[in-house]
Specification:
Elements lengths: L13 H5 L5 H8 L4 H16 L8 H9 L2 H9 L10 H14 L13 H18 L7 H15 L4 H15 L11 H9 L3 H12 L6 H6 L6 H4 L7 H10 L1 E3 H13 L12 H5 L2 E3 L5 E3 L2 H8 L6 H5 L5 H33 L4 E5 L10 E8 L2 E8 L5 H6 L7 H22 L15 E8 L7 H13 L12 E4 H7 L8 H10 L2 H5 L2 H12 L6 H17 L4
Length: 564
């Protein structure tokens, strides 16, 4: 039976289209014809079109091919009948960025040189061939196959960049307002004292920095994405000193970036998947050119740095900490983010309840539990079915993301999945044993329990990995009773996407259908199943995500980005 959920698509390079590969030396020669900043500008524009849904670009791959490939290349693509061919990918773009930083032309006086489409086409397709040769799919080796899926999943999965803004607003403003960060101090107080501006101002600044890449396609392609700090920030009402301080913390100077990149490029590429390693860009997503202008090194890293990871910004601003004090502060921040994330997940569950009266939402905090232990992070009930949620905010090591090697992050299974599964098992036992009398259901009426782990950081859950994880959990003796549905791992962006249809069906109904639609549906990741479900059932969005954008604009942008 055909698997319509888990399809691995190979990205086509020059060899697949023209029958020959372009050598690295030839690619370097073409790259050297143009200033490095032009290649970086091109890469981030392509990335923005790939990652941001635009009504005027329903098929980004076709649109980008028409814009950046000469007619001869487009004809070749059309002749192969590859309407759904993938020819642009994040791995390709990151490899291009590194080659551009290492071997691109000098900045000169900053004047742009008109780029020939044939040169753009050769470089992009040639780099994709190189990238593919470094990242081969080994289907007959389960371990290598899983590594391939993980690193591709982290790089090529839908990053939901737009969601990060309103998620950060809900977590770090609304949830943080309810819970102290340190004794007698809110997180906003701590942030303001350490960074010099309020949390919402930092969010607004992050949105202002990224805003050019959210413009409509004509505007995006018709202007440079390179920022001139001398005039770009003048229109903002935020203190300029604080702006400079924050932007400097996101920036690496071009010569330093070039030194790091060349060190990476001269290593054997078989030992390091160059296009996947985002370590440089994740820490410093801006690159400062000789002119003082800023070019974005990686769009998704920039958005993540200024939204979900802005919680870490104060730590680098506090001086003269001992090692113990630094470790304690890091632990405080990590734990606090976990508390805020759990609160955000519960808030989403409450929104589900408001949108669909079939379900009820419950939370049993440790203060009200008989044994003073929390009963799961959230509970959803529908008739005789119980859904138990454990929320996990742990972020994974960079080396794990770009290699896919389980050994690079040994806590992935034991420290996250098995721990959460045990917590779900404990919660289920308490409820079924009658130890939670406050729930509106008798223990003996429960017919099905849906165990769900909601992660802050996405986990690429291709079918084989899903099966592997479920097997590992079963080996621990947890969730083995027939009353349990298969364990489901859902990252937070999946839950946010589901909110757009929460009035049409409940999360329990969706998981029930997922588990009963055959092994392919059961083992695929939630996002794949949900996308197929929405398409096949023609589910109409209720506009929830659009509403969150309205709230973000009203409560974050307008008060803090007053243009003079």
């Amino acid at each position: 039976m055909e698997n319509k959920y888990d399809k691995l698509q190979m990205v086509l390079g020059h060899d697949a289209i023209f029958g020959r590969k372009i050598s690295l030396d030839e690619i370097k020669t073409i790259i050297a014809k143009y200033p490095a900043f032009q290649w970086l500008d091109l890469a981030v524009k392509i990335e923005a079109i790939l990652f941001i849904k635009r009504t005027e670009v329903p098929q980004p791959q076709i649109f980008l091919a028409q814009k950046f490939f000469p007619q001869s290349t487009q004809c070749r693509l059309h002749g192969r009948s590859v309407d759904k061919a993938i020819v642009f990918s994040p791995g390709q773009l990151n490899f291009l960025r590194k080659l551009a930083i290492g071997y691109g032309g000098d900045e000169g006086d900053g004047t742009e040189i008109p780029m020939q489409l044939v040169d753009i086409s050769k470089v992009l397709l040639g780099v994709q061939d190189l990238h593919n040769s470094f990242d081969r799919l080994v289907d007959d080796n389960l371990e290598k196959f899983c590594q391939y899926v993980i690193r591709n999943g982290y790089l090529n999965g839908n990053p939901d960049l737009t969601n990060l803004f309103f998620r950060a607003r809900e977590m770090y403003l609304n949830e943080a307002a309810k819970i102290e960060f340190q004794k007698g101090k809110t997180f906003n107080d701590f942030y303001n004292d350490s960074v010099g501006i309020k949390v919402e101002q930092a969010m607004a600044l992050g949105f202002a920095i990224a805003n050019p890449l959210f413009q409509n396609t004509d505007q995006l392609l018709g202007q440079t994405t390179i920022i001139n700090p001398n005039n770009f920030f003048q229109a903002l009402s935020i203190d300029s000193t604080a702006i400079d301080s924050i932007v400097n913390g996101l920036t690496i100077d071009f010569p330093e970036a070039k030194k790091k990149v060349l060190t990476e490029l001269v290593n054997d590429p078989k030992d390091a998947p160059i296009g996947y390693n985002l370590d440089l860009f994740r820490k410093t997503p801006f690159i400062r050119l000789e002119s003082g202008k800023l070019v974005c090194g990686n769009f998704s890293c920039l958005i993540q740095k200024t939204t979900q990871n802005l919680i870490w910004m104060p730590k680098s601003r506090i001086k003269n900490l001992t090692q113990q004090q630094s470790d304690d502060l890091a632990n405080d921040i990590t734990n606090y983010r976990g508390v805020l994330f759990e609160g955000y997940v519960r808030w989403l569950c409450e929104m589900m309840r408001k949108k669909n009266s079939k379900i009820s939402f419950h939370y049993i905090p440790k203060e009200t539990a008989a044994d003073r232990q929390e009963v799961a992070d959230a509970l959803l009930i529908q008739d005789d079915k119980l859904l138990i949620i454990e929320a996990k905010s742990r972020q994974f090591m960079e080396a794990f993301k770009y290699t896919g090697d389980w050994g690079k992050d040994g806590q992935f299974i034991d420290g996250l999945i098995n721990e959460a599964a045990k917590q779900i098992q404990t919660a289920a036992d308490k409820i079924r044993n009658g130890q939670v009398p406050s729930l509106p259901m008798s223990p003996d009426t429960i017919k099905r329990v849906y165990p769900v782990i909601v992660t802050y950081e996405p986990i690429p859950m291709h079918a084989k990995i899903q099966r592997f994880v479920r097997q590992r959990v079963q080996e621990t003796g947890n969730l083995t009773d027939d009353i349990f549905a298969p364990l489901e791992i859902i990252d937070i962006s999946d839950l946010e996407s589901f909110m757009d249809s929460a009035d049409s069906q409940t999360l329990i109904e969706l998981l029930e259908q997922k588990g009963s639609s055959g092994p392919h549906a059961s083992e695929t990741n939630f996002n794949n199943f949900f996308a197929e479900f929405v398409n096949s059932h023609r589910v109409i969005s209720n506009g929830w995500q659009s509403e969150q954008w309205v709230e973000f604009t009203k409560n974050v942008c307008r008060p803090n980005l007053t243009f003079k």
